[in-house]
Amino acid sequence: MSIKRLFDIPYYALQNLPKNDMFVTKYQGEWKKTSTLEFINQGNKISRGLLKLGIKPGDKIALITTNSRTEWAIMDLGLSQIGVVSVPVYPSISSEDYEFIFSNAEVKYCFVSDKELLDKVMKIKHQVPSLQGIFTFDNINGAANWKEILDLGEDDSTQIEVEDLSKAINPDQIATIIYTSGTTGRPKGVMLSHENIVSNLLACLPRIPKKKNLDYKDTRVLSFLPICHIFERLLFYLFQYHGFSVYFAESIEKMGENVKEVKPHYMSVVPRLIEKVYDKIYNTGSSAGGLKEKIFFWALNLIQKKKEISKPSGLAEIIADKLVFKKWREGLGGEIITLVSGSAALSTRLNLMFQNAGIPILEGYGLTETSPVISVNSFQQMKVGTVGHPLDNLTVKIQEDGEITVKGPSVFKGYFKNEEMTKEAFTSDGFFKTGDIGHIDSEGFLQITDRKKEMFKTSGGKYIAPQTIENLAKGSKFIEQIMVVGDGEKMPTALIQPDFEFAKNWAARNNLNLGTTPKEIAKSPELKARIEKEVDKINEHLGNWEKIKKIELTPEVWSIESGLITPTLKLKRKAIKEKFIDLYNKMYDHKE
C-alpha cells in the first residue's frame, strides 16, 4: 500500500511489519507493550468516541504530555484519521502561552498527561471560550479521563463512519498545527499537512540506515525528546514505518537507567544531551584515580588527534577501544546503530570524538516549517561539521546575503491566521526563508554558520556571528552556557553561565572555597580568571574583531523554567540580556 497520509503508516506497519511491542511505556515501574493491532484498535476507539462527542473534521484538539507515552501515539492516530487537527503543545511553556495557543487555534478539547499540566490548563480554561473539556491520561480524582473517550468508542458499529472520513482526507489537508517555541515574541502556529510530513519521512528513509542482519522485530528505539517537537515526531513516524519498537523514556533524569534496560539501536538526541553524556564520561574518567585515570586520558588524547572518522587501527587504538571506548558504548546500551542529532549545531570536536569512539552520529538540519528535515548526513555521504546533503526532493538556494532558502513538498502551508507573516516568510519566487546563514560546499554538503537574526554589527561596522563563537566554547568543561553580545557596541563580550558542579569539583581539587550556591560561585574572582583562560583559547580561533574582550558570570542556571532557554534548548537572547542587564552594562561601562 502507498503511504500518503499520516494514519496510513500504522496500517502499512500492520500489513507488512506487525509486532507485539510497537510502543512501550513504563507504568509503576513496569514496561507495558502495545502491539500494532492493539494500537490501531485503540486509535479507532478514540476516533469513534470523539465523533460521538460531537467532534468534526477540522476541529482542533490539544495534546500535552510531560513525557512521551503510548497514549499520545494513540490520540495522534485517532485524531488524524477523522480529519481532526492536532495541536501538540510543549509542557514547559507558560500559562500565558497556553492561553494564547488555545485561543488562537480555537482548541475544543485538551488531553494532558498529569495533574501538574491539568492544573496549568485549568488556570486558563475560563479565558478560552472554545475549550469545552480537558481529559487526563493519568487517573486523577475529579478529572475526566481519556478512557471515557475509549469507552464511548467501544461500540464498533460506527466504524464505517471513521473509514468514510479517512477515505475523504486528502494529503494536502492540514494534519497538525505546531506552535514554534520562538526565541522572541509570541509562538507562531505552523500549519503542516499530511503530505508535508509524509514527503519528508519518505525522503529521509535512505539517510537513516537499517542494519542488514537485524530483524525489525528485534530493533528498539528509545524516544525521550518531546514528541510535540516535529524532529522527534518525524522520527516517531519513520520508526513506525520500519516496524521498530519505540520505547518511551520515563524522563531525562532516568535516561541512564532506561538506556540500560532497553539497549536501544536508535536514539534521537540534541547537542546538549551529547555534551551532558560527554561531561559524565569525562568526570567519571578523570576522577577514577591511579592507573584507570591515566589510561582514560591516554585514550582520550589518542582519539582527539584523529581528524577523520576511522575504525581503530594499530595496536594503541585497538587497546584504547577495548579498555575505554567500549565502556562508552556500553553506557549507551552497547547496541547503538546511530544517534540522530538535530535542533541545534553539534560541536565538530564532540561529533568526531563520538564517531571515532564507535558511536555514530547522523547530524541533520531543519525547521518546524520544513516538516522538519532539510538536510542530513548518512553513512554513505558524511562530513563532520556539516549537516549533510539536502534531501533529494528539496531545492536549496543560498541567497546573496547567505540566507538558506528552500522549496519542496515538505515546506509548510503557512502560519495559522497570519497571512502577512506567511507572505514575509517566502521570497518572491516561492522559496521559504529559513533565517539561517550557510553555504553549500564543493561536495554538496550544507554548512550552517549562524542565525541571520542573531548576527549583529559592532559600532565599528564589523559583523559578528555569535553561534559560531558559542559553539567553540562548548568544548570547555567550565562553560555550561554562553551568549555572545555586543550589538552596536565597540566590541563583542559574553555572558557565561558556569558549569556550577564542575566548578565546585575544580575548586575542591585546588583547595579553593567558591561557596556552594550559584550566586556565590559566580562571584569568585578565581573562577572568573580561570574561565577567562578558556575564553583566551577560544579567541585563538577568531579574527581580531570577533575576539571576546570581556566576560561576566551569571549567578543562576539558564533553564526552560526560568524562561531563558526554549523547550528545544535554544537561547532566548532577549530574555537573557534583560535578565542580566546589570552584568551587560558592567562589561560596557554603561551608567544606569
From TrEMBL:
Q: Does the keyword Oxidoreductase apply?
A: no
Which InterPro entries is this protein grouped with? AMP-binding_CS (IPR020845), AMP-dep_synth/lig_dom (IPR000873), ANL_N_sf (IPR042099)
Q: From what superkingdom does this record's organism come?
A: Bacteria
User: The AMP-dependent synthetase/ligase domain covers which part of the protein?
Assistant: 26-416
What's the name of the protein? Long-chain fatty acid--CoA ligase
- Name the Pfam families for this protein: AMP-binding, AMP-binding_C_3
Keywords linked to the UniProt accession:
ATP-binding, Ligase, Nucleotide-binding
CDD domains in UniProt: VL_LC_FACS_like
GO-annotated molecular function:
ligase activity
* Keyword Transferase among record annotations: no
